[in-house]
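Dear colleague,

Thank you for sharing your sequence with our group. We've completed the structure prediction you requested, and as agreed, I am returning the results in plain text so they can be pasted directly into your records. Please verify that the sequence below matches your submission; if there's any discrepancy, let me know and we will rerun it promptly.
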Amino acid sequence: DARARARAVMDFNLEGLRVFFPYPQIYPEQLAMMTEFKRSLDARGHGAIEMPTGTGKTITVLSLCVSYQIAHPECGKLIYCTRTVPEMEKVLAECRTLERFIAARAGEDVAAMLALGLSSRKNMCVNPRVVDEGSRESVDGKCRRLTASWVREKRLEREARGASENENVEDGGEGNCCEFFEDFESAGEKAVLPPGVYTLHDLRAFGRTKKWCPYFLARNMISFANVVVYNYQYMLDPKVASLVSSSLEKECIVVFDEAHNIDNVCIEALSVNLRQQTLENAGRSITSLNTRIDRAKQTDERRLRQEYERLVNGLAQQGVLARGGGEDVLMNPIIPDDILREAVPGNIRRAEHFVAVLKRFVEYLKMRLRSTQVEQETPTAFLQHCAANAGIDGKTLKFCYDRLTSLLKTLEVVDMDEFNALSLVANFAALVGTYSNGFALILEPYDERYPNIPDPVLQLACLDASLAIKPVFERFQSVFITSGTLSPIDLYPKLLGFNPVSVRSLAMTLTRDCLCPMVITRGADQQAVSTKFDMRDDPNVIQNYGRILIGLAQTVPDGIVAFFVSYSYMENIVSKWHETGILREIMQHKLVFIETTDVVETSLALDNYRRACNCGRGAIFLSVARGKVAEGIDFDRHYGRAVVMYGVPYQYTLSRILRARLEYLRETFQIKESDFLAFDAVRQAAQCVGRVIRSKKDYGLMVFADKRYNSQDKRGKLPGWITTHLREEVLNLSTDMAMQVARTFMRSMSQPFSHDENTQSLLDQAMVDRLAVEGGWREALPALSRKLAPEITMHLS
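Please find the predicted structure tokens below.
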């Protein structure tokens, strides 16, 4: 059976590299993507590659990178970064398929690998007393209360003196421990994973079997793994990256999948918002810290004195910030290269002096929030004002986060929920004290939607996405960003500040036109349709938008998805449809479900939507661009036979943070404001309509319902695999013309068609071999035994 499976898949030569591909045929765009990846890896450079949706991007990347690791043992790990846990599980499932094929084709010694996923404690914990806590923060807090080194030391002391098991431990909550963590620690060097591919489910099952903590086991095994799959934040957010990714070698291959919004992820990682409630909570935390310091002076002043001596010589050099077990709660928010390697300023070395400085800073921030005017300033201006009014300089602020970390560790604090607000203030202080460029401070005394309700917020907004990702490009020799919607792809190297070896947008090869994009610019009454501010509330526009959905409900079988530019616009238009009877007419043909801001409600609506599609009733799902559904849910097969994009999903252009970023982009990168806004809006629209095609066997309509899509300025920014199908006959359509196109398309898709017989968009082993010979590549590198750590190799026997 294994031999038959091995024969039914592909093993071919790609420019001298033996590539293992676990399927019997390969798409031309997959081969093209592998070629781009290989050339970038050979050149030890970076890449930005756009590959059409539904063409097997994940297995393409895995096959090429794992094959490259096998041929080049000096190559480092593959770090595959995803946005969500389901995407992570999908990557690891494909990796398992690949591993089994390589084992059947080239032998167990070649296939031997360790691949694993890493997620939060909430997703990996197997201790029922901890995982039942509910929220991620609660699970983290309970875990720390059981695993922090001082809590465990106190438990051992109590056991040594014969104290009762139920005796309460100060600051530690329960006197008991986590048996999974204790057994993991007791196992020492023997606590390793055998070779294999481990999803989060597999890690939890392995942890239950061995009685080892899966979370700390996975973190420990990252150093030995060949493939690691985790969230963007583990690589981009300095607080998390310093904990998880600091030990990765330079030779690693880093891949950011679905990276069309990676600039926004980078900016969010270095931005902080402070509200009145945050500062009130921080004030209470400072009072609690003072109480703990006084108690420590009375019971164990030695700890505070030792900490002071370490701080005189510098935090990093003395190892005061080394962490283990549950102590990894506070990580530095500063990018590693920007952290000062020097002694902590004298005015915050003593614990009580540092807390006094924090108190002054919190009072200063409260004073700033009392302003009734909108204020915007640079970090330099903020520091000057802070020094003049609070007597705190930038260098002191720069060390706040690490100094707070040291103090909390010295005081043996494990219940961090109490200090979340204070750590946020310290985060703000460290960032504003470190960076003078690429940031803006914006104080808004109220929400513009409710000008009569005071709701002050002080925002430290990162404006430069390249700050967070720059260390990744500098540290690792090959970093790739890839997605189905990276157009215009030339803008990403500018935004992220890197020089890729390979920049390419791949076309989609199809044997039949299974996707049909169209642009509707007007209704049957010839009234233009658009969500432009001066048109969106026009009754004729709302009526025509309703008629589009009625026509599609009558024409398209199964599921239809409609995206709106915002929640408020969707609520308004659905309300008007209800008043005018349009909603009733739609529901004569299909059921209607709506996305809300509530995650549970939306999940329930999605589940019922799928059930309606499965039973043949048909359904329409109304959603919002930039929402959870637009980013993470696939409407493949009968769940999405048509998708409608109502309007152009621009960001809220009156946002002061957006305006500050646009000004920064214009001055620093010479990117025009209109160009960036159009680029950002169209990439969101492309992401929405791309939900409907998830494979070449799928088919669906893509309806752009706004007259602005008819202009080359907007249309030209869509991915090439969409624009190639935007021919003249599907542009500038009225509603009735569009319905005729939809009926013709659906009729053609209903005709019998065999995907197995098509040879235009699928290449088999013989075709790929012929291409290799024509390119002058007759022999591939031999498949070598994979380089595994000794700790892992011992399990192979």
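Summary note from our side: The radius of gyration is 29 Å.

Kind regards,
the structure core
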